[in-house]
Structures are given as C-alpha cells and as structure tokens.
Backbone:
C-alpha cells in the first residue's frame, strides 16, 4: 500500500494547477486551526505572478483572529472525489472592496489523493517505453511459449488497459482470466513483475477499416513500493497534459 507521503505533490506547476481546479469548480474548503476550531471558506483568487492565494474570511471576527494567531492552519477540500489539503502560512487579512479576505503565499505542496479505483490516465502515444510483456504458456507439447509486448493505453494504480494488434492473440484473452508474472514497464525506465485479471474486453477502432481488442485489467499483485512509482508516473502524465 502507498503511504500518504506518496500523494504529496510538490511540483509548483502541478500545485498551482490543482489549486486552479479547486477554484474553477468552486469547491468548499474547510479551514482547521487551534483547538478544533474550523470554518468553511473558498479560494477567491490565485496569482501565479505574485505567487499568492486569497481566501474568503470566516463569518465572525473571533474566528478570523483565532486563525491569524494560530501557528498551524490546514485547508481541506474534495474535488470530484479527490481529497485535497494544503497548509496555510503567513496569513494576512486584507481589504476586499467592502469586505475582507485572507491572503497568503501559494503552498509549497498539496496533498492530492485520487479515488484510485476510478481515476485513470491515457498513456501518451509517444511513451513507447510504457508497455507490458506477456508470456502465453503453451497448452500442449507441440506448441511453444510465446512472448508479446503490448503498448499501454491507459493506467491507474489499480489497473491498466492495452490494445492487442494481433488477431491470433484475441482468443487468448478472456473475461476473468488471470495473468501472473507479467512484466510492466514505465516510460521513465521503472519496471516490475505484476499479476492482473482481465475485467473488460472491448473492440475499438484502430483505423477507418480495422478494429483491435482493448483489454482492461485489474491488478492482483503489485510489488511493495511500485504503487508509489505508478502514482508519480500518473502525476507526470497529468502535468504533461496540463502543459500542452
């Protein structure tokens, strides 16, 4: 299992991107400080140039004063099932038209916990290093074992999907079939021996006139530590997509 530290995002561009998502989706944020004190707030503005974030004040001056005098402030939110949190530091209360708001430096990091069973990313086509190597065990002495490499189509820390370009392999994939001792390679060079079970078989268009079998799988086994490597790779793909 991945530790909580594996979900801490510290890349400045990705931190800003996640905060922008919280702002654009008008997510409610809970501010926690002092001895169990809290109130609901929201991000009002993000400024990448000045590297500052502004948030709505509390409904009472008493809570505002407690927050400003607190050494530790934690902001929590949920974005489409993703649990997010970040620390507050050097908070100041500033005038905002007829009202007031809090401003502080952008956080150095954000905790971003995906709902992993649903969250997947499409693997970029140019990530040719991301693939799985499967070996089909011969069923009788007249046959030989065959090994084939399949490019990844999408990936999560709970499973993967790949396309089969060879029709003769189609019959080797069946619902609920288990594939042990498969080699999974990531684009950055990491690799591990994994096991998975096939959960979905769908024919998709490969060209205007041809189709391929798309195989969706759920991991049965991941070696210790590899889940966090998958999570970091997924975050790298997210950042790449957001910068395109």
Residues:
């Amino acid at each position: 299992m991945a530790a909580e530290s594996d979900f801490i995002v510290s890349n400045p561009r990705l931190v800003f991107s996640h905060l922008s998502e919280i702002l654009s989706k008008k997510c409610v944020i809970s501010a926690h400080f002092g001895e169990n004190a809290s109130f609901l707030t929201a991000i009002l503005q993000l400024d990448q140039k000045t590297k500052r974030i502004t948030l709505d004040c509390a409904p009472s001056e008493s809570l505002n004063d407690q927050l400003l005098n607190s050494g530790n402030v934690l902001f929590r939110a949920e974005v489409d099932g993703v649990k997010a949190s970040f620390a507050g530091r050097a908070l100041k209360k500033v005038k905002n038209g007829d009202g007031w708001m809090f401003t502080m430096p952008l956080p150095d990091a954000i905790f971003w916990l995906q709902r992993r069973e649903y969250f997947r990313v499409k693997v970029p086509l140019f990530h040719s290093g991301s693939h799985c190597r499967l070996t089909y065990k011969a069923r009788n002495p007249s046959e030989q074992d065959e090994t084939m490499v399949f490019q990844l189509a999408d990936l999560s820390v709970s499973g993967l999907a790949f396309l089969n370009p060879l029709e003769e392999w189609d019959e080797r994939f069946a619902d609920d079939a288990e594939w042990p001792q498969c080699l999974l390679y990531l684009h950055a060079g990491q690799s591990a021996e994994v096991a998975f079970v096939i959960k979905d078989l769908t024919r998709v268009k490969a060209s205007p006139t041809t189709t391929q079998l798309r195989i969706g799988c759920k991991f049965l086994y991941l070696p210790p530590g590899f889940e966090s490597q998958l999570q970091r790779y997924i975050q790298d793909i997210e950042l790449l997509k957001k910068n395109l």
